[in-house]
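Pilot study result, target chain (143 residues):
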Amino acid sequence: MTHRFFPLTLEHKPDLPREQKRIIRNHGEVRPTRKSGRSGSATTKAINRVWVKGKDVPGLMISRSLGDTVAHTVGVIAIPGNPLISNPFIDVNTFKLNVERYEYTLVVGSDGMWHMVTAKLLEGLVKLTFSDSLLYERDLEES
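Predicted structure:
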């Protein structure tokens, strides 16, 4: 079987224009941490986060969240939505699956995972997992 790889949703990042406008309008701010990166790392990358204006809380790297009451006071919302389209409440993508030609794997992860794992790396891991399992299944059939 052939494997296809495609993301189903967009990440809700606070520095996307629509998301940032909502956060600022609700008296929040979008800025990187004062101290970015892991201690001892050679390079640090400034990552924009959501903050209560003038404070160092909550520091979320996402602009949509369930249950974060502090972040909800400054424009982080729990309503799913696509920040790139005009209606922020629409985040339903429909895909027609060709199950006769393709196998599908759904990978779900938190923002922390997506910050560390690129789509390309994940694609490679999924392909490697399938190729190993297919080899294992073939070995079982031959024995």
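One observation from the pilot: The chain has four helices and five strands. A full batch analysis is planned for the follow-on phase.
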